[in-house]
Amino acid sequence: MLEHQSWLTWLQESALSAAMRQWAWLYPAVEIGHIISFAILVGAIAMFDLRLLGFSRHLLVTDMAGHLLPWTYIGFGSALLTGFLLFASDAEAIAANPAFRLKLGAIALAGVNAAMFHLYYSRSIQRWNRGIRAPVGVRAIAIFSLLLWAVAIVCGRLIAYI
């Protein structure tokens, strides 16, 4: 625990953290970037999940995946970077915040959920690619994904209040 605490202390006392706290417009600018990043990430995921749930069945699942997956990478990468900068501004307090921990847990579970989709269902997409209802397991994964990302968003907002 001491090593963990010392890393958080080091981060919180770093020049990066000081800049986040001292430059009047840096923190709000990074926070706006984080919100936009999450909007791109969760928006792309939500569109794909809704397709898996049966909306817009005339669109190929493979086409949607090909179009939306790069956006999820862009959104996740920029959310990770901006999230780290926000975290650095008050690392010790944020690390102890239950809403922050729940947010990270929801994001981790969403990653596992996505991996389950790719491991178990990506090979069978051609059978239900267009016009056919996705298998029950796929729909369950899509619902779970939407719920997990909603939890991550809500918890992200609650960090400031808990």
What does this structure look like?
Helix content is 78%, strand content 0%. The chain is mostly helical. It has one domain (2-158). The protein is elongated, with a radius of gyration of 18 Å. The relative contact order is 0.14. Keywords: Membrane, Transmembrane, Transmembrane helix. The chain crosses the membrane at residues 24-48, 68-88, 100-121, 141-160.
Which of globular, elongated, flat, extended, rod-shaped describes the shape?
elongated
Name the poorly predicted regions. Answer: none
The fraction of residues assigned to DSSP E strands is under 5%
N- to C-terminal distance: 23 Å
Oligomer: single chain
Number of domains: 1
Work out the number of β strands. 0
Keywords: Membrane, Transmembrane, Transmembrane helix
Protein name: DUF2214 domain-containing protein
Transmembrane segments: 24-48, 68-88, 100-121, 141-160
Which key phrases capture this entry?
7 helices, mainly alpha, 162 residues, 78% helix
Secondary structure elements and their pairing?
Blueprint: H1 2-12, H2 15-22, H3 26-52, H4 61-88, H5 91-96, H6 98-120, H7 136-158
Helix pairs in contact: 3-4, 3-7, 6-7
Summarize the structure.
This protein has helices at 2-12, 15-22, 26-52, 61-88, 91-96, 98-120, 136-158.
